[in-house]
C-alpha cells in the first residue's frame, strides 16, 4: 500500500464506518450493482482485497464457498469480524498490497475502493500478484470511486485504465459500467482470464 498505514489508522480511529459503507444508499446501490455484475451465481474460492469493515464481505459470502477477506488495518478487520460473526465461510486476514496476498488460486477476486491507494509502480506490482492468483476460469471485478481525491495517489479511472492496458496479455474484458458524475460516481469493470 503506497499510502502509509498511519493514514488508515487515523481514518478508522476517527469513525466506526469512515466511508458510511453500512448506511449509505449510494454504497448499497453500488454493492447491488457489484453483485449483479458477477457473471456466475456461485464461486468456490474468492478473495476480497481491502475488505474494510466487511459490509461487502457479508454480501459476497452468500455467493462463495470460502472467502478470504483481507485488509491492512486491524481496526477495520476487528469490525469486519464482528459484523460477520455468523459467516463461517469468511477468513479475515491482515494483508498488505502489493506483495502480501494469500497463496493459491481464486476463481473470484474483488477489489472495491482499494487500488487508487497505490502509486502507479505499486499498482503494476499488485496487478502482477493479483493476476497470478486468478484461476484459469476466474473472474476479476474492480469497482472504484472516480472523482479525484486530493490525498489518493491515483483516481479510479487511472487504476481501471492500467488493468485494461493488460487486455490481450492473459486478460479479457467482460463488462463495464459507470454511474454518477465528477462529484459522486464510480466505475465497475469485470475481467476474466484469457485462456
Automatic annotation (TrEMBL):
Keyword Nuclease in annotation: no
Keywords assigned: Methyltransferase, S-adenosyl-L-methionine, Transferase
Transmembrane parts of this sequence = none
Superkingdom: Bacteria
> Does the keyword field hold Methyltransferase?
yes
Q: Which GO terms describe its molecular function?
A: methyltransferase activity
Its GO biological process annotations read: methylation
Residues in a coiled coil are: none
CDD domains listed in its UniProt record: AdoMet_MTases (cd02440)
This chain belongs to the protein called: SAM-dependent methyltransferase
Organism in which the protein naturally occurs? Deinococcus arenicola
Lineage, highest ranks first:
Bacteria, Thermotogati, Deinococcota, Deinococci, Deinococcales
